[in-house]
Amino acid sequence: MIQWWQILLLTLYSAYQICDELTIVSSAGSPVFAGFITGLVMGDLGTGLLIGASLQLTVLGVGTFGGASRIDATSGAVLATAFSVAGGIKPEIAIATIAVPVAGLLTYADILGRMSTTAFAHRIDAAIERFDYKGIERNYLLGALPWALSRALPVFLALKFGGAYVQSIVDYVEQYKWIANGLTLAGRMLPGLGFAILLRYLPVKRHLHYLALGFGLTAMLSVLYGNVQSVGNAVSAMLGTDAFAKLPKEQMVAFTNNFKSVSMIGVAIIGIFLAVQHFKNSQRTVVAAPASNVESGEIEDDEF
Questions:
Q1: Lower CB count within 10 Å: N or C terminus of the chain?
Q2: Is the overall model pTM greater than 0.85, yes or no?
Q3: Secondary-structure percent of the chain, ordered helix, strand, coil, rounded to 5
Q4: Residue ranges of the domains in the chain?
Q5: What does the DSSP 8-state code read for residue 299?
């Protein structure tokens, strides 16, 4: 059961996160941050990070241009994490049954929030004509209210009154194992779908060598540290008699479990190095866009 203070904190965070995304842009409105905050409030940080990171990967290649709306994966992460922890739902099932539908439905709340702010925009235009600076500031701040309510109100209603509905879904899923297995598989596939969308819009052809390099490094480092872990398992088995049995349990598994994520850390470090080098090179040489592209309004790959 979700406590009243947890509902209050998550509602306040939902109101803040959209305003942060539109103004401050501190990443507090990202799905992974939403999973972190919700997991912290609900008392299960691991589940929150798993759900938030999965939704973050899902929307990697999704963006907004102009006045376009996109799925609200952040609110989806909040509700999926809250109900997953409170109801004991598997994170993958929570992603497929709660996060994705909520993210899609709240697109309409995003549109409603955008429409509501136009009233304050017209009031700001009128204040500009009157040189009413206080009116400009006041209406600018009031314009944040529709945005905050577009997230806070649906999240509050779902957390307050949606528990019984979510529990009925869980009970139904538990009756049919094949449904649970299918939803688990769908939840695990969503991050891969996000990567596919991202690669579709990135200038992959221009930077294919970087993609090949990243794949090669990941494969080699995974094999390298996988072999190190295998050696650790073999050493542990060889010492499994008297000397090894006397060690504390946490020391017995420390050697074999230290290398599971080292390959990704190595790839990330190399990626940061290449990104810094690319940035420095771009600062030294500024290439002007062709006149034909500028006149026709064509968007270059890097600009897109």
A1: N
A2: no
A3: 80, 0, 20
A4: 4-201, 204-286
A5: P
